[in-house]
Amino acid sequence: RTDWQIVLDLLEESPYSEDEIVARLPQYHDSIARHLSDVIASFPVETCPGGVETVRALLDQPNIALGIVTGNVASAAPVKLRAAGYDPDWFPVGAFGHEAQLRAALPPLAMQRAEALYGSPFTPQRVVVIGDTPADVECARAAGAWSVAVNTGFEERESLVMAGPDVLLEDLTGF
Asked: Which of 100, 133, 141, 173 fits 105 for a cystine, CB–CB 3.0-4.6 Å?
C-alpha cells in the first residue's frame, strides 16, 4: 500500500472526510521524514543480500536507467534508502506514495518522468520492477512491465510464486 492509502485506512473511523485527510497529506509528508530520521538508527535495517552490489553494477551500464517506485512518501524514501546502504542519488527518477493512492499508478508516473529526463520512450517492455511482495508483482503487471520478485522480505515464498512474477530470485547475490 502507499502511505496515502495507509493514512486513509488508519483514519477511516475518524471524523475527517477523505478530502480533509488528503488535504493534510503534505503535513504527514513533512512529519514522517523528520520522525523517521530520528528513530531509524534504533531499528535493525536488513539490506537485501546482493542489492547494493546489483544497483552499483547496474549504474555502470550505459543502457540502463534506474528509478525507484515506492509506497513511501518522497521525504521518507531517502531516509530508508540511506539506512539500507543505498545512495538516493542512484535513482534519478521516482514515483512516491504521496502521489497516488494506489500503488499501480506509480510505475506509469515514473516512466513518464524517465522519458522526460532522458528524452527517450520508456515503454513497459523496457521496464523491470524488482520487489519483494506480491503487491510489487501486481504493480509491475498493472504497468505492463517485467516483474522480478525477490524472496527476501516478509512474504512467504509461496505467496510470491502465486503472484506469478516473470522471475523469482532468492536474493540479488550475483544478479
From this structure: 100
Specify whether the CB–CB gap between 48 and 171 falls below 8 A.
yes
Q: Are strands 67-69 and 93-95 parallel, antiparallel or unpaired?
A: parallel
**Residue 40: how many CA atoms within 13 Å on its side-chain side?**
18
- Cα dihedral angle (104, 107, 109, 112), rounded to 10 degrees? -150
What CA–CA distance (Å, rounded) separates 131 from 148? 6
Q: In what order do the strands lie in the sheet with 167-169?
A: 128-131, 146-150, 167-169
Provide the whole-model pTM.
Answer: 0.88
What pLDDT tens digit does each residue of the chain (175 aa) get?
888 888 899 999 999 999 998 898 888 888 888 899 889 988 888 889 999 999 999 999 999 999 999 999 999 999 999 999 999 999 999 999 989 988 899 999 999 999 999 999 999 999 999 999 999 999 999 999 999 999 998 899 999 999 999 999 999 998 7
d(CA 171, CA 149): 9
∠ CA 91-94-98, rounded to 5°: 140
